[in-house]
Amino acid sequence: MISDPISIEFYEYFPIWNQLTPRQQEKVAAKISFHTVKKGTMLHSGMDCTGLLLIRTGQLRAFILSREGREVTIYRLFDRDICLFSAPCVLHSIQFDVTIMAEKDTELWVIPADVYKQLMEQSAVVSNYTNEIMASRFSEVMWLMEQIMWHSMDKRVASFLLEEAAIENTSLLHITHESIANHLGTHREVVTRMLRYFQSEGMTKLSRGTVELTDMTKLKILSGT
């Protein structure tokens, strides 16, 4: 039985909870841990086996680093999302380093990797669920590769701004040029040049630490959405 109030909510957030056996549920309940982390906290880096992260509230960012130290976001995680790439020891097919960072203050559960690995070995339901998540994440990575290979930077910046506006539910984004560059895996100067062009075309309004989207229609046409 899960006794602590925060842990009681776990079964509501873990979608296949009711398909686990009572013994499996007890084992998971005994091993999970609940954490509150501040924005900017590094939760996982490299090939460390941190465990699976299940978000209660908040937002995480998964990114990779080039040899030159440039970042590129591969996906983001929100309420009820689960992160598998923070437990590479469970998924032997993962052969690249991923960094997970909190983009906002976040509450989450950590499922130990060894516990989850046992569940996968014992339960076809857990194994299938894991494969579905993996397929979804790799689809996002493939979409990213397509963007990098075939889309011009102005389209990528426009797409990112629209995505960010949808996530934050506002057209006034509190974000720096450096942060946008990190998401897109490019240089700050390139982003600044693009944003100034957008501003000259009436699509954005720039001020220190903010980017306001002033013409969503033009940005959507530019991004191809």
Account of the 3D structure:
The chain is an alpha+beta fold and 225 residues long. The protein contains 9 helices and 11 strands. A 4-stranded antiparallel sheet has the order 1-8-3-6. It has a 4-stranded antiparallel sheet with strand order 2-7-4-5.
* Alpha carbon gyration radius: 19 Å
Strand order of the largest sheet: 1-8-3-6
Q: Under CATH, the topology of the largest domain is which? A: Jelly Rolls
Span from first to last CA?
47 Å
CATH homology superfamily of the largest domain: Jelly Rolls
CATH architecture of the largest domain: Sandwich
Secondary-structure element order, N to C: HHHEEEEEEEEHHHEHHEEH
Helicity range: 40-55%
Spans of 5+ residues with little confidence (pLDDT < 50)?
Answer: none
Q: What portion of the residues fall into strands of 2 or more residues? A: 15-25%
According to CATH, what is the class of the largest domain?
A: Mainly Beta
Task: State the domain count.
Answer: 2
Q: How many strand elements?
A: 11
Q: For the report, how would you describe the main beta sheet?
A: 4 strands, antiparallel
- Which structural class matches the secondary elements? alpha+beta
- The mean pLDDT is 91
Number of helices: 9
Gross geometry: elongated
Pick out its properties.
4-stranded antiparallel sheet; alpha+beta; 225 residues; Arc Repressor Mutant, subunit A; elongated; 9 helices; Jelly Rolls
Topology:
Elements lengths: L4 H4 L1 H4 L8 H10 L1 E5 L4 E3 L7 E6 L2 E6 L5 E7 L4 E2 L15 E4 L3 E6 L1 H10 L1 H27 L2 H16 L3 E2 L3 H8 L3 H13 L3 E4 L2 E4 L2 H8 L2
Antiparallel strand pairs: 1-8, 2-7, 3-6, 3-8, 4-5, 4-7, 9-11, 10-11
Helix pairs in contact: 4-5, 6-9, 7-8
